[in-house]
Amino acid sequence: MALTYDDLDVAVRKAFLPGIVNQFFKATPLLVRLMTKNNVKLRGGRKIAQPVVYDELPSGYYSGLDTFDTSYKQTHTYAEWDWKSAYVNVTIPGDDIARAESDQEIIGILRPKMEVASLTMRKKLCEGIYSDGTGDGGKAVDGLLNGLDDGITYSTYGGISRSTNTWWKGNVDSTGGSLTLDMIQDMYGTCMDGDEHPDLIVMPPALYNKLWARVQPQQRFLPKDSDLAQVGFEGITFNRAVIVPDNYCPSGTIFVLNTKYIQFVINTNRNFVWTPPKEPTNQDAYVRQLLVMCNLIVTAPWRSGIIKNVT
């Protein structure tokens, strides 16, 4: 007896979905690093809410019977982000399945569709991670261009105004110019604070190739036991960070990231799910969608930075 549409759904969920999810989280060095730091989170709720610390508690030195400042002081607030939903559609004509002479042929018809579905979802989300969140009419993922903005282009982030809350701004160098190590060092230093420091520097391959040619004589490659090296990424160590190329990184842009304060959040009810049967009433077709509800959030924009217009 030939496989039914229900059998195909079982095959997708068991044989294909785990690989799609695994490949997605290996698609970009940022996601690999977030996985390593346990900063890929599963959550529910109407929105993504995150407490944000912006001030210190009363403190000071004292002597003898000096009084303490015991007044209440608000030290944190909540940022809120909307969920962003993405889909990939898979439609297979019913007569293609009917012409298959074995179960193996039917799975063979499904396999290339699922491979393309994986690539499509990966491209959609990875491009979104580095974007400004305005794509598809504002339905796209709130990417790093928005999350790390200094308030000049995007005045509000996570529902918090950067105009009245300057502590919520990222570090942006819009001057750019010819790529130099000093340029990267300046932004790295700007993002440092005591033991807090960027750990991941991402740039497009064209810029990475220029940098590699300049530092090659004293270059230090990633250790083989690095989380990034283990999944196939190459890079250069820089202070206490690593510099890596990423094809999804926008042209002429360098991201200097403290990934401790970046999260990729996935909705528990839309965690790369395969939709239930959808039988068209006027067509002979197998129609399903791959769905995910997620967003990228930056919980401390001032810990990271962007260098734009780099050549």
Q: Short summary of the structure?
A:
By secondary structure, this protein is α+β, with helices and mostly antiparallel strands. The protein contains eight helices and 15 strands.
Detailed description of the structure:
The strands form 4 sheets. The protein has a 6-stranded mixed sheet, with helices on both faces. Strands 1, 4, 12, 13 and 14 form a 5-stranded mixed sheet that branches. Helix 1 (5-24) runs parallel beside helix 4. It has helices at residues 5-24, 29-36, 94-99, 103-129, 135-138, 144-147, 181-191, 205-215; strands at residues 40-43, 48-53, 76-81, 84-93, 156-157, 160-161, 171-173, 200-203, 236-238, 241-245, 254-257, 262-267, 273-274, 285-298, 305-307. The N and C termini lie far apart (61 Å). With 311 residues, the protein is α+β, with helices and mostly antiparallel strands. The protein contains 8 helices and 15 strands. It has one domain (5-50, 78-307): Alpha-Beta Complex (phage-related protein like fold), CATH 3.90.1690. The chain is globular.
